[in-house]
């Protein structure tokens, strides 16, 4: 009888412990709807591996232990913190990630996701979710449980935008002038909407410029479009921001050749010296840090170009 009572007591004790532990574990996570389904993610992740979205995670003050080479080269990030982050390879290497003991992994493609899901809770995020500055901050704030940090970064961005806007006003640069974003890639010339970085979010969300009408249509469609030199006049803007992904900067032979074309020379922006060429490595990134940093870069360039 005594043994029976002991085992009943033990069973009750275990049941009690289980009933008290489970809610604690459940409360430590929240459900997040991602590209790879609904994932239970930590409310307060301590060790995050983030590929494409390193800047987004860091901007919300979350400790990141692993990322990819391209993201680690982001010039806008805190370099002291970047030095402590390990390169996990592109695509992500499972062994490299496993060594970092992450409690959350953030990916941008299915191939990485399939490998990473075996290691820790993995959230796959489509690039389309991160193209708009404010929506992106809200999205990552929900994922990482960082609403206050997101609000603080928005305020910082608005403050910087206001400072740069005052400089534009002083220089007489009208926000009624349209802007356009363009890039030369391997001999092909592209027009962009506002969702593919290159300073577009800084110009639109930050400084209040509008895309030229034809580019606004590109923005509402695929977001980018290859255009021929013959069709460039259709996609012209008052200020045309141009980058080259060749790694050769403004010396890109394809870009130089295009600039010699009579059609290009006939553009109003060319005649007004309102074509602004900017370095690819500073305009490629589009995370919150980069977008805030690009506010000054595009403002400096606009003031130099004049009204």
TrEMBL record:
Cross-referenced PROSITE patterns: FE_B12_PBP
A Pfam family hit: Peripla_BP_2
Swiss-Prot/TrEMBL keywords: Signal, Transport
GO cellular component, one term: outer membrane-bounded periplasmic space
A Gene Ontology biological process term: iron coordination entity transport
The UniProt record lists the keyword Lipid metabolism: no
Coiled-coil spans in chain: none
Subcellular location as annotated: Cell envelope
Signal keyword on record: yes
Domain of life: Bacteria
Family per similarity comment: Belongs to the bacterial solute-binding protein 8 family.
Record PANTHER family: IRON III DICITRATE-BINDING PERIPLASMIC PROTEIN (PTHR30532), IRON(3+)-HYDROXAMATE-BINDING PROTEIN FHUD (PTHR30532:SF26)
Protein name as catalogued: Iron ABC transporter substrate-binding protein
Native source organism of the sequence: Loigolactobacillus backii
């Amino acid at each position: 009888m005594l043994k029976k009572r002991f085992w009943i007591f033990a069973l009750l004790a275990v049941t009690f412990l289980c009933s008290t532990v489970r809610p604690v574990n459940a409360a430590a996570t929240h459900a997040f709807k991602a590209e790879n389904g609904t994932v239970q993610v930590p409310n307060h992740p301590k060790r995050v591996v983030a590929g494409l979205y390193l800047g987004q995670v860091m901007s919300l003050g979350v400790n990141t232990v692993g990322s990819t080479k391209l993201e680690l080269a982001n010039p806008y990030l805190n370099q002291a913190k970047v030095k402590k982050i390990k390169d996990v390879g592109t695509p992500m290497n499972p062994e490299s990630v496993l060594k970092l003991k992450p409690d959350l992994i953030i990916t941008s493609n299915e191939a990485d996701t399939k490998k990473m899901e075996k290691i820790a809770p993995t959230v796959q995020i489509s690039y389309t979710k991160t193209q708009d500055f404010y929506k992106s901050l809200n999205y990552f704030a929900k994922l990482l449980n960082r609403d206050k940090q997101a609000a603080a970064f928005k305020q910082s961005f608005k403050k910087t935008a206001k400072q740069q806007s005052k400089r534009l006003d002083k220089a007489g640069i009208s926000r009624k002038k349209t802007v356009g974003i363009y890039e030369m890639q391997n001999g092909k010339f592209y027009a962009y909407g506002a969702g593919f970085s290159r300073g577009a979010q800084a110009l639109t969300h930050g400084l209040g410029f509008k895309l030229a009408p034809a580019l606004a249509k590109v923005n509402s469609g695929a977001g980018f479009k290859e255009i021929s030199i013959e069709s460039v006049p259709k996609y012209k803007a008052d200020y045309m921001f141009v980058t080259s992904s060749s790694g050769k900067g403004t010396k890109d032979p394809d870009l130089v050749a295009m600039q010699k074309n009579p059609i290009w020379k006939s553009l109003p922006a060319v005649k007004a010296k309102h074509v602004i060429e900017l370095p690819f490595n500073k305009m490629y990134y589009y995370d919150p840090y980069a977008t805030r940093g690009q506010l000054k870069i595009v403002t400096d360039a606009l003031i130099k170009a004049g009204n």
